[in-house]
Amino acid sequence: MLFITLIVASFVFLHQSTAQTDCSLEEKDLIFIIDDSGSISASDFLLVKEFVLNVTETFTISNVTVNVAVITFATFATVEFYLDDYSDDKAALTAAVMAIVQSNGATFTDEALALARTDVLDPARGDRATADNVVILITDDISNDPERTRNESDMLRQFAEIFAVAIAVDDESEINYVGDDPDGEYVFSLSSYSELPGIVDDVGLVTCKSLNGFNHGVLDLP
User: Fold this and answer.
1) pTM metric for this prediction
2) d(CA 32, CA 13)
3) I want to staple 75 with a disulfide (CB 3.0 to 4.6 A). Which of 42, 50, 106, 154 is the partner?
């Protein structure tokens, strides 16, 4: 596992990317951490799922390029699917994302960050030693346990670039802490869910190119 670079039976409009970036040969393990707490309406949660699919459209999904995992969180965090579940089947990946059911509840962001570190980023779950790992957090609220959220982001950051999308968050100090620095490149601040389509190209671009160019290392799980 490499350093983490720390976001159907339905008619889904997939954004056609105009970003002038060729990610077709990029090898990434892409992990979306999605807030599905009770503060999000059903229609806005659908926009989040479409955003996830639109970002994946900027990459080539295959065993040798980009793999995708999704974690949702509210009162509890859940792995919706692992990196190797749909590594060679983009249609099945699309169906799996659209099938995610919102759980509602509180906002324990720390649980999701911990789950990414200890469960998803595991070679037995599809984490590849040759791939960069990209984590995109999407949330509309501060966490119920701010101290633990900061601690978990620090532990993830030992091996990670973390990107964050904050939607109508009144106090962004926590999300700015979770996302890497500088905030202007790692944190996307939106006023509503309807603005998500407008950042698809930018999110795809920064996660494709890996801003800091780290020398990657193997994650030593506790």
Assistant:
1) 0.86
2) 19
3) 106
For the CA atoms of 148, 151, 153, 155, the dihedral, rounded to the nearest 10 degrees, stands at -130
**CA gap 219, 2 in Å, rounded:** 7
Query: Domain range spanning residue 38?
Result: 28-79+91-209
How many domains, in total, are found in the chain?
Answer: 1
In what order do the strands lie in the sheet containing 28-35?
77-81, 66-73, 28-35, 132-139, 162-167, 187-190
Q: What CATH number did the domain enclosing 142 receive?
A: 3.40.50.410
**Secondary structure, 3-state, 50-97:** HHHHHHHCCCCECCCCEEEEEEEECCCEEEEECCCCCCCCHHHHHHHH
Q: Which of 67, 79, 64 is nearest to 34 (CA)?
A: 79
SS3 34: strand
Q: Is residue 135 part of a domain?
A: yes
pLDDT bracket for residue 210 (50, 70, 90): low
Give the burial class of 210: count Cβ atoms within 10 A of its Cβ; 0-12 exposed, 13-18 middle, 19 or more buried: middle
> Domain for residue 172, yes or no?
yes
* pLDDT score of 137: 97
| pLDDT 10s digits, 25-36 | 778 889 999 999
* Structure confidence by residue, pLDDT tens digits, 73-95: 999 999 999 999 999 899 999 99
Contact 176, 183 (CB under 8 A): yes
